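re: that chain from earlier
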Amino acid sequence: MKPTTNRIFKFIGQAFAVLIVVSIFISLGFWQLDRARDLKNSLSVNTHAVVAPVSLTSVAKPLESLGIEGINTNVIATGNYVANYKIPNQKDSNGKISDWEGALLQVNTSDAILVLRGLWSDRLKYPDVAMSTKVSVTGILTPHQNDDHAINGPGVISRLDSSVLVSTTDLNLYDGFINAIDENTSMGHLDRDRISFAATSNPRIPGYYWQHLSYVVIWWLMAAVVLYLPLYQRRVRA
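^ sequence. v structure.
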């Protein structure tokens, strides 16, 4: 084989290796860009005044982790409240600490989701709403809390998290909870003070929005460096 042919094959091999490395760096940049976009979307809070509610089952499933498409989505679910809980020492978006009322909404024969209804002090406002009453709930689908604010006990849960209810029910539970904006029964609208929450990020996406964007710049800069190095070496040799 002639020396010229060897150089050609060597050049092709080097060019192929460079393209592979550059492709990897560019792909990593797009991956970080997607993560930044997902994190930004997960921080946007929808409200029923702007976005029409969608069915709970269209964005979440029982016994599965709450996905990006469900977090902070305005949803609607219909069913019966089968249990009520006091959720002590909770802080709203204004920093006010109070006890809240949660309820387990059974949406069909096998599934249920935790609902944040409002203040515990308002729990007796509609005594005619019983377990047999069909309730339509509209609200923001929110990731579960991770930190305990009290001790679990009869009728009391330590945090807004369906996992603390697993031992108390045979129903298949949804991850997260609905922060109720509106409740309606056949008797009409249930007028209650609702809980205001700050935007909740997706706990499965670590980091910050600008941090992910900086990684995009770093990966693509490395791709540019890999492309430039062979040209630089050829200039040095020349």
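The mean pLDDT is 83.
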